[in-house]
């Protein structure tokens, strides 16, 4: 369900500033999603040009984070927001922090993709592709939930994180077997495992963003509890 919980303020300028802030977050999210998608594609396909492009785009993400942080500080100082307006600014500050970390992971995956471009693709790459698809989809859905303030969609991302975790565990077991069969595979297996870990962390950051959406709309902090417990926490909150 998606509704707009924001009341209009007497100051039209404040309304415009809050909407502008949300727009900047979505712009940053779009760039991060693009970089992550390119890095994952480069890793799977062995595309060195795409890998280098994604690895060198992180500076833009960092600049956007700094600019949005400064805007949040200005709004806190000048507008002294309360209630949901304050929650929005807190959510933005936390969200851009997670987005910046996803950007870092995309950069590192891009750099690893350059190094791994010439290697043979063992069977584990099939699972790595699957993990990449899951992580990229989770990030997209979390950003969409933020844009539409959709609590149900956000909870779908929270619940879906277990699927990414299980894929990571399965790939880890597969890689251990792969490395035990031939010690010459150890370096290659560790590189793949590192990339898998980065993809798992992208899924975690997407889950964090989804949880911030729940906090923003419902005023409930659902971190560190199970999805079922979270559903109970927000079931009585109007949306």
Give a concise summary:
The chain has 239 residues and is an all-alpha fold. It has helices at 12-45, 48-55, 58-79, 83-116, 124-148, 151-181, 186-218, 227-234.
Textual characterization of the structure:
There is one protein chain. The protein has 239 residues and is an all-alpha fold. It has a single domain (12-234), classed as Methane Monooxygenase Hydroxylase, Chain G, domain 1. It has helices at 12-45, 48-55, 58-79, 83-116, 124-148, 151-181, 186-218, 227-234. Helix 1 (12-45) packs antiparallel against helix 2. The longest helix has 34 residues, at 12-45. The radius of gyration is 20 Å and the shape is globular. It starts with 11 loop residues before the first helix and ends in a 5-residue tail after the last helix. The mean pLDDT is 90.
Secondary-structure map with pairings?
Layout: H1 12-45, H2 48-55, H3 58-79, H4 83-116, H5 124-148, H6 151-181, H7 186-218, H8 227-234
């Amino acid at each position: 369900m998606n509704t707009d919980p924001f009341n209009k303020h007497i100051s039209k300028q404040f309304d415009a500033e809050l909407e502008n802030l949300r727009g900047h977050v979505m712009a940053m999210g779009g760039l991060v999603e693009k970089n992550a998608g390119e890095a994952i594609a480069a890793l799977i396909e062995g595309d060195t040009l795409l890998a280098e492009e994604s690895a060198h785009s992180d500076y833009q993400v960092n600049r956007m984070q700094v600019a949005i942080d400064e805007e949040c500080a200005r709004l806190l100082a000048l507008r002294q927001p309360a209630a949901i307006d304050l929650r929005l600014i807190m959510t933005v500050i936390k969200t851009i922090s997670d987005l910046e970390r996803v950007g870092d992971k995309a950069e590192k995956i891009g750099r690893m993709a350059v190094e791994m471009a010439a290697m043979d693709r063992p069977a584990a790459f099939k699972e790595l592709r699957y993990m990449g698809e899951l992580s990229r989809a989770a990030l997209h859905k979390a950003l969409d939930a933020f844009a539409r303030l959709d609590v149900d969609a956000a909870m779908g991302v929270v619940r879906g994180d277990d699927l990414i975790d299980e894929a990571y565990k399965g790939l880890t077991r597969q890689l251990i077997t792969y490395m035990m069969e031939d010690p010459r595979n150890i370096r290659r297996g560790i590189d793949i495992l590192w990339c898998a870990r980065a993809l798992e962390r992208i899924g975690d950051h997407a889950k964090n963003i989804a949880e911030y959406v729940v906090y923003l709309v419902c005023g409930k902090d659902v971190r560190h509890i199970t999805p079922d417990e979270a559903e109970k926490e927000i079931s009585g909150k109007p949306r």
